[in-house]
Amino acid sequence: MNIVTVFVVSQGACVWVPDPEAVQNASYFIYIGANHLYAILLFLNKEMEYPVLPPVGLPPLRNPDILEGENDLTALTFLHEPAVLHNLRVRFLDYSSIYTYCQIVLVVLNPYEQLPIYGEEVIDAYSGQDMADMEPHIFSVAEEAYRTMIREEKNQSIIISGESGSSKTVSAKFTMHYFAVMGGAAQQTSAIGNAKTTRNNNSSRFGKYIEIGFGRRGDIIGANMRTYLLEKSRVVFQVLWEGICL
């Protein structure tokens, strides 16, 4: 079988190339090398060869500068890992934003510090607003679920997922606080955690399934929380001590 490879990339196009430290670095495409085995890229004013044979192919293209810092990843022209990481980095460093939409999904970066973006005035700003009309925030997701529940009288679910230290417990805390304010039972909620890891000083060892009951007027009438073990994989062996008798 003969394979014909067609490359449709303009000279000077900005692309991403892997980097062991920065993960991805910006480079510029110049031309396809002999026999279509490699591409010649310009990186830090030096030409470099990049293999383009399947399954590698050409390096992923960068998005136009005008799309940098988009608050919804689905608005990007090119949606791949380097584009997502770069956009999240720009939003965090240049816009001081830890939240980014990916359609109805909210991507959260843990800043590892307290931020003044969860006060009562912020709750008031997001109350009654559509997700599309507001900057990404955990309160916007909570508001969307709350309003849909009231309007359609159907149960809603918010799934908070991520690796250890990604702020799952804190995100659940602020979500419940928003519901408490909307449901007329506002009070401080606290995080639940019971272990310290190399990446998280307050790591939750258990998954939590939280149910909050609301009346027809949207007021909280009850709540229930169940826990289930998720971290069995961390228990890999039992330490055995050898005693010495004197």
TrEMBL record:
GO cellular component: cytoplasm; membrane; myosin complex
Keyword Lipid metabolism appears in the UniProt entry: no
Domain of life: Eukaryota
Coiled-coil stretches noted in the UniProt entry, renumbered to this chain: none
InterPro entries: Kinesin_motor_dom_sf, Myosin_head_motor_dom-like, P-loop_NTPase
Listed GO biological process terms: actin filament organization; system development
Keywords: Actin-binding, ATP-binding, Motor protein, Myosin, Nucleotide-binding
Molecular function (Gene Ontology), one example: microfilament motor activity
Residues in Myosin motor domain copies: 68-246
Xref: SUPFAM superfamilies: P-loop containing nucleoside triphosphate hydrolases
Recorded family membership: Belongs to the TRAFAC class myosin-kinesin ATPase superfamily. Myosin family.
Protein name: Methyl-CpG binding domain protein 3b
Organism: Sinocyclocheilus rhinocerous
